[in-house]
Amino acid sequence: MQLKPKPPRIGSAKMRRGLMAASCALLGAAGARAQDTHAAPADSGILEDWSVDSALAYYHEDGRIQAIEPIVNVSKLFADGETLSLNATFDSLSGSSPNGALTSHTAQTFSSPSGKAAHRYSTAPGQLPVDPNYEDDRIAVGANWSVPITRVTQVSVGGKVSGEDDFYSVTLDASIAHDFNEKNTTLSLGLYDEFDSLRPIGGAPAAGSDYALAEKTGDKTKDGVGALLGLTQVMTRNWLSEINVSVDRFKGYLNDPYKFTSIIDGAGSTLGYEYENRPDQRTRKSAYWDNRIAWSTRLSTAASLRYMSDNWGVRSDTAQAHLHWSLSDNRYVEPSIRWYRQTAAAFYTPFILSTSEVPMAYQSSDSRLGPFHALTFGFKYAQKLPGFGGRAESEFSVRAEYYQQILDERTPTPAGLQGLDLYPDLKAILIQVGWRF
């Protein structure tokens, strides 16, 4: 997870990306599908020999952020086995974004940049402090080129560029895959390098500084490098298993410049706020295991497990299962379920006690770094349709997902804050419409 320095987009940007990833699910296999795409007749024009995957996703949190995300991926398989894939994504977000402050019995007023200008807003007593004018647009484009250098070895290179009002990112990646054992075993190695430029509206606040002083600095940067080693094995005619391990490291400005933490006294009264302060480097390690089994010509399943740990103290477990059931030759459904759990970062704190004798070297109230578990329930329906541009067929699909996040540990609070919902759960839905041809 890359904690990009912007207001949280779901109670947690990680959760939004995890859920919005559903809109990319059909795009992930675009390269593989391109290998099965037959050449279109000459009169198909610009789309000749190209496979197209597209999706439009709508995401909505209960009382917070909503997003609209169109995605398109086009790929082409050349006669010599080379594959070119191009993709583009646009995110449009709006709604109310939590700023990190603690709910209080009294009204709270903030002055914070959001969208394209600074403004003031107030939160009523007993309400979660959120910026009600949050909006952001993001566009990302990417490309990947795969080349078979021998009958059993393939090399891929790619890149991605994305931009927002206050954030720009460039990523380059390369990988190599080699087949063994009569192509029943594949070993792969991938590397990537990411550079991010952060230009917070109004300037990046000094880490750990007093919110009221508005002590700002200039633009910031962060860099990330990562590697992934994977092994895919054909276990039987109906069972495919994959395992990979990865490590990545980011360094530089890893704070969210728009988030701060409440400072309260022993009675629970808010005395002020402090901008968050995170370490300037983060290393993550993860292991992933996926199994896909075809039980019959109409029924197959996919199940995966993932474990991640980092030097911030965060540990996470993920379990996910999909069922693919063909209702007929032209229709299928895919119910799915995903379970996620993580521990808190060592420096996560929902508030700062002014009476504390030992101040924390680092602190953040960002819920993305808190302890919680989450469940996602999904259902997809797909229907094959007449082809487009001379193709034999196309596919239309609709996916719906429901997400619920629940905090696992609630920090004891002063008696003066009793009766307040300091740790609200998060609920969200995702609707995706896709078309492949």
Please give a structural write-up.
There is one protein chain. The protein is mostly beta strands. The chain has one domain: Porin, CATH 2.40.160.40. Helix content is 4%, strand content 58%. The protein is built from three helices and 23 strands. Strand 18 and strand 19 form a beta hairpin. The longest helix is centred in the first third of the chain and has 8 residues. The N terminus is likely disordered.
Instruction: Write down the Rg.
Output: 24 Å
* Counted beta strands: 23
**β-sheet strand percentage:** over 45%
Name the helix and strand elements from N-terminus to C-terminus, one letter apiece. Answer: HHHEEEEEEEEEEEEEEEEEEEEEEE
Structural class: mainly beta
Shape label = globular
CATH architecture grouping = Beta Barrel
Calculate the mean pLDDT score and round it: 87
CATH topology assignment:
Porin
Distance between the termini: 32 Å
- The top-level CATH class is Mainly Beta
Quick take:
With 437 residues, this protein is mostly beta strands.
Task: Detail the topology: elements first, then pairings.
Blueprint: H1 13-20, H2 25-28, H3 30-34, E1 50-61, E2 65-77, E3 83-98, E4 108-114, E5 117-123, E6 130-148, E7 153-163, E8 167-180, E9 185-198, E10 204-205, E11 216-217, E12 220-236, E13 239-252, E14 260-264, E15 270-275, E16 281-294, E17 299-310, E18 315-326, E19 331-342, E20 351-353, E21 372-386, E22 393-407, E23 426-436
Parallel strand pairs: 14-20
Antiparallel strand pairs: 1-2, 1-23, 2-3, 3-6, 4-5, 6-7, 7-8, 8-9, 9-12, 10-11, 12-13, 13-16, 14-15, 16-17, 17-18, 18-19, 19-21, 21-22, 22-23
